Every structure is written in structure tokens, then in C-alpha cells.
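TA notes, week 10

Several of you asked for a full example with nothing omitted. So below is the full record: C-alpha cells for the whole chain, then the designed sequence directly under it. When grading your own attempts, check the secondary structure regions first.
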């Protein structure tokens, strides 16, 4: 239930919800792909958000993108900004999707900024 989300997770959900489903926040991200990613991110927060918070997942680990190149630099992207698929399960260091999985414990992996901060930065620069 959405009212059971921890305040930080509710903030993430609100930030994703405020991004347009038809206007990708990152260059080179198609509107169709972004719409699916956004819908699946909201679904993840509704189903797994409280558990992700309890396990210590951060906004950058989930929704991060490269500060200059957005989703084009997947090595900087959070788990939910790479797959685009619907999440199937979550554990301390892994989120499983239909066909793949994403991990947060990859040594040396840089952390990006949450996609909503990237969108605000890009909008301010326009």
C-alpha cells in the first residue's frame, strides 16, 4: 500500500511520478523506452520500495544516471535505469528482472545522480 512507504521512498516515487511519461529526461532515450522504464520504476517502488529502503538501497543505486550523459553511460546507471524490465524480486545486493538481474555491489562502479535531478539540471540549462 502506498501509504506504507517510508518517507524517503515516497519522495522517490513522487519525483518519478512528476517526470513526464512521454518526454524522456535523457537524450538518446526513446519516448517509448522511457515510458516503460518510468512505469516499471513506479511499479518497483509500489511493490518493493519499502523493502529496498530497509535493505539500504539508495536513489543513485536504483535511479542513477551519468551527470552529463544520462542513460547513455550505463556504467553509471542505477539498476532500474538499465534493464527497463519489470522487477521480479529484490535482495540485499540484487534486483532480478524477467530476463536479467542488476547488482549494487560491483567493485569500482561509479554512482550517478537520480534521474529526476538529471532532468531538473537539463531543464535549467535549456
Amino acid at each position: 500500500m502506498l501509504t506504507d512507504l517510508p518517507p524517503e521512498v515516497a519522495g522517490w516515487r513522487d519525483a518519478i511520478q512528476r517526470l513526464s511519461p512521454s518526454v524522456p529526461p535523457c537524450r538518446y532515450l526513446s519516448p517509448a523506452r522511457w515510458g516503460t522504464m518510468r512505469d516499471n520504476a513506479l511499479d518497483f517502488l509500489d511493490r518493493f520500495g519499502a523493502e529496498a529502503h530497509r535493505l539500504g538501497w539508495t536513489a543513485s543505486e536504483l535511479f542513477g544516471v551519468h551527470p552529463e550523459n544520462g542513460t547513455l553511460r550505463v556504467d553509471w546507471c542505477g539498476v532500474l535505469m538499465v534493464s527497463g524490465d519489470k522487477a521480479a524480486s529484490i535482495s540485499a545486493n540484487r534486483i532480478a528482472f524477467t530476463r536479467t538481474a542488476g547488482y549494487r555491489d560491483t567493485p569500482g562502479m561509479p554512482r550517478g545522480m537520480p534521474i529526476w535531478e538529471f532532468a531538473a539540471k537539463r531543464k535549467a540549462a535549456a
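The mean pLDDT is 94. Use that as a sanity check on your answer.
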